[in-house]
Design brief:
alpha/beta; Cobalt-precorrin-4 Transmethylase, domain 1; Methyltransferase, Cobalt-precorrin-4 Transmethylase, Domain 2; 2 domains
């Protein structure tokens, strides 16, 4: 089986927020697909501190991975070995490359077991006050300034024309620049939700304001994980 295991959004989140079955599945296998080894070890320790780190068999699965890179792991699964799939944060396969293994498992008739947990994208949406029936997750915006401006304005236009909420992210160290761009390129009455440090009991920041109000006081979010939502 392939267990799709959620990771915390903040290391400060209480373990009581998570289903006990996560620990059970982590204790059940030593084999994991991970996007980042250091992060994965911290997540395993968070849920199952008694599990021996030396026993972990970690296989890298990131956006550059192809099936040929994880052939050894796939052969083990075909022989009956259970694996866990760990995201860096939140749910696997959402803004995460884990779908490569999930797709392969379906092709090979290997059972996929999703475990409930937090998704920063969904938590930002439901906290925004925007349309939760119809929405689009757009991933990361372009780095190029011109392309970024074009997409920001396209997303604003889609909100106005369709009413669909538009969700996107940025690499944390570029958050402040993105906020500058949003307040520069969007119309004053357009509404923007910024959801940062989600699930952190001390530093969680979730606010929905018009662009003209964001212009008056911009949050400091350098290197802070955040999700942005445009909506009505």
């Amino acid at each position: 089986m392939l267990f799709l295991l959620p990771a915390y959004l903040s290391e400060n989140t209480s373990i009581s927020h998570f289903a006990p079955v996560i620990k059970e599945y982590i204790m059940q296998t030593d084999y994991f697909f991970v996007e980042n080894e250091k992060t994965a070890r911290k997540v395993v320790k968070f849920f199952a501190p008694e599990k021996k780190q030396a026993d972990l068999k970690l296989f890298l699965l990131d956006k550059y991975t192809e099936n040929a890179d994880i052939k050894e792991a796939q052969q083990l699964m075909l022989k009956g070995q259970d694996f866990g799939l760990l995201s860096e944060a939140g749910l696997p396969c959402i803004a995460d490359p884990g779908n490569l293994m999930v797709k392969w498992c379906h092709e090979k008739n290997i059972q996929v077991v999703p475990i409930s947990g937090p998704s920063s994208i969904i938590l930002a949406l439901i906290s925004s006050g925007f349309n939760g029936q119809e929405f689009t997750f757009n991933g990361y915006l372009p780095i190029d300034k011109g392309e970024k401006k074009k997409q920001i304005q396209q997303l604003e236009s889609l909100v106005q024309k369709t009413g669909y909420s538009q969700i996107f992210m940025e690499t944390p160290y570029r958050n402040n620049q993105l906020i500058e761009d949003l307040t520069k390129f969007l119309s004053p009455n357009t509404k923007l939700c910024i959801a940062a440090n989600i699930n952190d009991p001390e530093h969680e920041f979730i606010k929905t304001k018009t662009i003209k109000d964001w212009q008056k006081q911009k949050p400091e979010l350098h290197k802070v994980p955040a999700v942005f939502v445009l909506g009505k």
